[in-house]
Amino acid sequence: MSKRILSRTALAALVPSALLAFAPPAAAAAAPKAATASAASAGADVLPFKAHEKTLPNGLKVIVVPTGFPNLVSVHIPVQTGSRNEVEPGKSGFAHFFEHMMFRGTPTYPPEKYQQIITKAGARQNAYTSDDLTNYYTTFAKEDLETVLKVEADRFQHLSYPIEAFKTESRAVLGEYNKNSANPMQKLFETQREAAFSTHTYRHTTMGFLKDIEDMPNQYEYSKVFFDRWYRPERTTVIIAGDVEPAKAVAMVEKYWGAWKRGSFKSNVPVEPAPRGAQYRHVAWQTPTLPLVTVAFRAPAFSDTHKDQAALSMLLSLSFGRTSPLYKRLVQDEQKVDQLFDFVPNRVDPTLATIGARVKKPADALYVRDAILQTVAKLRDEPVTASALADAKSANKYGLIRTLDNTEAIASTLASYVHFNRSYDTLNRYYRVVDSLTPADLQAAARKYLIDDSMVVTTLSHEALPAGVSTLPKLADFAPKAADAKFDVLVQKSALPQIRFKLLFAAGSAHDPKGKEGLAALTAAMVASSGSRERKIDEVTKALFPLAGSFSEQTDKEMTTFSGTTHKDNWDQFLGIAMPLLVDPGFREEDFRRLKDAQKNALVLDLKDNNEEEFGKERLQANVFAGTPYGHPVLGTVKGIESITLDDVKDFYRKAYTQGAVRVGISGDVSDKMVASLKTALARLPAAGGLAPTPAIRGRMPDGLDVEIIEKNTRATAISFGLPIEVTRSHPDFPALWLAKTWLGEHRASSARLYQRIREERGMNYGDYAYIEAFPRGMFQFFPNPNLGRKAQLFEVWIRPVAPQNGHFALRAALFELDKMIRNGLSQQDFETTRGYLEKNVFVMTATQDQQLGYALDAQWYRTPEFTRMMREGLAKLTVADVNAAIRKHLSAKNLSVVIITKDAAGLKDKLVTDAFSPISYDAKKPQALLDEDQQIGSMKLGIRPEAVRITPAAQAFAE
Q1: Are 226 and 192 a contacting pair, CB within 8 Å?
Q2: Residues facing 295 on adjacent strands
Q3: pLDDT, tens digit, for every residue of 207-253?
Q4: For residue 306, what are the contacts with CB-CB under 8 A and spacing of at least 6?
Q5: CA-to-CA distance for 930 and 949, rounded, in angstroms?
Q6: What is the pTM of this model?
Q7: Which residues, other chains included, contact 195 with Cβ-Cβ below 8 Å and sequence gap of 6+?
Q8: Closest C-alpha to 796, from 561, 602, 619, 559
């Protein structure tokens, strides 16, 4: 989706651990006397797979789902425990904390041995915790299924860790809390939940209360109690999806999991009493940000037999989503808000349904709140139309189906529903409930749940809001009033019914005219998000809604990619709606103002103010490539965005989006007729060759350590450093350098060297990674998006936020490890282990339909073979000597550009230029060898010259 159009689809980025951490387990509490879905309305199963289910004698549930996708298997293990189960005072956040502890090993498989096995399987692995469950998942090559089941069974039954490891991990969890502290939405939802709940454990978020997190190092004995209570077979489901034989898979589970003993602990989650009247809370934010307004109501628990929760969710989606009249009014026409969203989570117990908005001006907060309340009041009196409901059901169904395009996505979707009743059919039953909904059901849900007594209004702002916002009106006060294309098409034929196409234009931010930085990104946004000449954007959105279709843009340095997707049944209709956006754009002044404001907010607020990590990475790119077309963010600069006019957009569009500048790819169950219709539509573009190619790009190689310290009022310290490299995918050293960065700091992989030394052994932060290709938005995803091709790249090390007192040591520690890798190289064993991992993992990182199509177009742009073939062949030819030679040739631990974001910039500068000793202390006892190494690292001379360190106030960064 577009990175700037934010509504329901923006929710994951807005509240990754606040609202969305609000995911589901166990039997859903039945809504009393709620309407039951009629069996007569039940349709066909929405899941197109044949599942095999078995409950072992010890209570463990096994679900095996052959997906039809070859080579890969994904194992998900949802456990029916989350923050909902944290009933003891002082123990909030423990379910999430214990998710971390589950990676601390067993007597048979200590952490390093466990990680070796996972790495050898070429796997990507992680876990998450929500209000109601903790889910562990691993995706890997099918031949390693028995091994993975064996080691997973061992840690679920025999987890063991010393107190030192426990205390170390507690500080990593605090680091995660600190990482999230820059997000105002996180704090708003903490405040909302505390106001809404007085008794139930939904009162606290999954992260828990800060005071409890800080006390976690003292809870070692309780951790054993927690494991004994909740990690039991009768609360656990093993989901095995992918290229599997069900009988063999079940037999493996029986072999390794059958001896696991049942538990006896009974949960006593307190029941929340009836709401005590409307509540208002305000959060005073310490730094500049746009105001937030949310309105929440008590919502029913999830059910796959009763209609209330499905009805309320559907109702709010229709009323506040992107197809709603209120979205058109507030976001598009009046432009008073840049984000409007709704969220009704699936939860075991009654929860909160939330409607929210980000307001552009503080003075409009009261107006926006009342517009939301007016819409809510109207829902109780006027039913939705049958046609609107039918469209929403269609979008729901096709929206789910389009996500089931790879094994991991299928297993993940199952895990989010299976855990309620430990049943594969929960999702099918739920969609039968959805299919049975009527306008009367939605209105009944509105009258039952959207009531004054359960309303919680929460605001957040830096500046003062209108006085009346704290006085809550009654909902009754808002009673409603009366040819021939000149390009080739890459076709990836498959059996998937979801059709996806990509249009890659050679036009990116490197083509921004001087003084108009941000023009390429704003032009692309205007194409994807401002409607066509025939349809305004709200009409486009409404037309696409029943198709579950989307048309979005992504802009990078060298390219802009438009992606469209729809079900094959809807192809002709979709093409008639989506393609005019590109070939006949509307370019309306009101849309220009809206998207220009959104782009500036994305730069100033979402990047600079609210996200130190992405801010630091983007600043490093700008510093290394200063003076080149890559020397500013894709979003532009504040001055550049402000200077752009609608005529600038129109002129860039005419020059950039031509037949001669586009590469086209399409995938799915594609017919020749579909390809022909796409080419015919694109033939309306000008036949010209597009913009002039960008020149050769050469970054600035630092002489020594060149440091910029961004002075910002922040709780933690974020660090990025790197240097320019000539290695891209078309360079012969690419596989070698890719292997080296993987060993040093594979993204989100706990087996990598930096992660092990800084995060695991010292517990300093949430993770530490290395890259040889740009990875925008890396903190939000496992793999980079395709279609980010560049003529020059950056070797980069990303140190996730650390405590400010550890910033100097963290920089030294990372440089220490980088220097060792350059001096000593990889060992033969390290080389073989990493190469084996990559030879398998390359399939994981290109597993989805979108990735496969995108990487294929990237191969055309780089003029290389298909990516997985190129990498596997390149890796197969490599020797450890090749890798070590590439490291010495292209990398340096002495000449680096460094960006640090911290509060006490002057104090840090003094430490850097004086080469002061940087101490570090621990809560847990550490081996003497590590302490000795700390002394060596802490006294390591960096030789940073005073003139090589500059301090920049955050407000000045990317200003012009």
Answers
A1: no
A2: 355, 457
A3: 888 899 899 999 999 989 999 999 999 999 999 999 999 999 999 99
A4: 30, 31, 34, 35, 36, 37, 300, 433
A5: 30
A6: 0.81
A7: 279, 281, 456, 458
A8: 619
